[in-house]
Amino acid sequence: MTVQWWCSAKGLPWRWHWQAYPGVWIVVIALAAVYARWSKPLEAGARTHAVSTGRRIGGWVAVVLVWLTLDWPGGPLGTGYLASVHAAQFLVLAMVAPPLLLRGIDPDRVRALFERNGFAAKIIRAVTKPLLIMIVFTIVMLATHTPGTVDLLMRSQLGAFVLDSAWFLSGLAFWWPIAIDLPVREHFGPPMRMLYLFAGTQAHLYLAMWLLLADLPVYGIYELAPRVTGLSALEDQQVAGGLLLTLGGTYVLAVISVVFFRWFAEPQPER
Amino acid sequence: MITQSSSVAALGERGAAREPCARRYLSIVLRPSRTRLAIALAFAGGLVALPGCGVSAEGGGRAYRGAVLAHPIPRPSFTLTDTHGQPFDFRAKTDSTVTLLFFGYLNCPDVCPVHMTNIASVLRTMPYDVTRMVRVVFVTTDPERDTPEKLQKWLADFDPTFIGLRGTPEQVKAIEKSVGVAPAVAGAADSSGNYEVGHAAQVIAFTPDDSAHVVYPFGTRQADWVHDLPLLAQVK
């Protein structure tokens, strides 16, 4: 049994033999510990939560999703064999898990953090500025999907770790202004949020179309990997593009719809 | 000239002389300004444009993506048995064509199926003027397990026009030697009787002038074949 601390492309034939990835376990345990602390009520002994049970469970679902995405078999399959699994990993790490985790956090803790205005609060305030993070998220999305980047980073454990971290951390920052109302930004109301979500995820739709319509496999890692399924490298890439377009696109549209209908249902201030 | 490593070291020294990196970063991002936004946008544009800068430099004319040989290999003369049990005279039957010759075996877990898949996928997209010129010849290095029926079925799954040839190990070794590739070596069998065969990983491309000027090692992409096959077909 080979032990690697993080998944990387090895170019070896795929075998359904379980492999240990201790780095993944450490990261997931750390994530679970941080989430457990931040989803607890701020006041010790408080019996009621500021967030609903559903939202708190959603956060735990996100932790499990992150674990399933990074650990065997999803992790190595997405890193070195199948572009379609790689696309699914992107959707989980950058699009699904971050908002679920953020919505499960106790807002009183975040409020207390901003009231103290310490180092962490300053960092969060800086990196969650909507315009800035929208640009950064788009850059991360484009840069981490270019063939040169993918083929280079996936070859090493450190590279794959950097790519996974970039998706997850940029995803957290991107979804923060949507999932958490702090710091208060007066100009960032529902219409701006919808625009933000739409504009911030445009790049991923273009990426999806590019993968879907390319005549040749674009990633060397997946093109030269021993086949796992009956799909050719090009067909697998088309599935990846299809996943990004259908699941990713539908998901973003659904979130925009939720923002819209909540805004629509809000009582309008009387003049 | 400052090398990359020395410039990085120099940057580190300058940074240390002033203030910690984290604080400097914060001082940049915490204070908004239009200049910084413009820099961020320019940086974003640069990153997006980066992939376009990675195009390989071609000198124009006949620049192959495969590995060009210093000394061309003449098209060899040999006769092996095809998957129908008929003798196949390689030189006579592939004369004046682009012939992609490869030595491999059906149980190969990686190199053989990837090469065959990539060539077959590309041939499906190429114009008839090119594909009519191309022959793909697969010589098995494991004739014991690769029966004619299995060989035919395996190749037909990629492309029914691919030609499978079998011979004795001695015959195959002699051919491998004649085209300058390392002879295949069977590994030790495991407890269930399975074994791997070490074999040359390159596809040798013979052109209509009856010589091989280029070989394609493992790692050759479909885009490389799309680029090179029309060029190979034009060689007179």
How would you describe this protein?
- The complex is a heterodimer of chains A (271) and B (236).
- Chain A has helices spanning 22-38, 53-70, 74-80, 83-104, 107-116, 119-127, 130-143, 147-153, 157-179, 190-200, 202-213, 220-223, 233-265.
- Chain A has 271 residues and is an all-alpha fold.
- Chain A has one domain (22-42, 49-265).
- In chain A, helix 3 crosses helix 4.
- The longest helix of chain A has 33 residues, at 233-265.
- The radius of gyration of chain A is 20 Å and the shape is globular.
- Chain B has one domain: Glutaredoxin (3-Layer(aba) Sandwich).
- Chain B has nine helices and ten strands.
- Chain B has helices at residues 4-18, 21-30, 34-53, 90-93, 111-125, 128-131, 148-158, 169-178, 222-234; strands spanning 67-74, 79-82, 87-89, 98-104, 134-140, 163-166, 185-186, 197-198, 203-206, 211-216.
- In chain B, the strands form two sheets. Chain B has an eight-stranded mixed beta sheet, sandwiched between helices.
- In chain B, helix 5 crosses helix 9.
- The relative contact order of chain B is 0.16.
- The interface between A and B is medium-sized, with 32 and 28 residues.
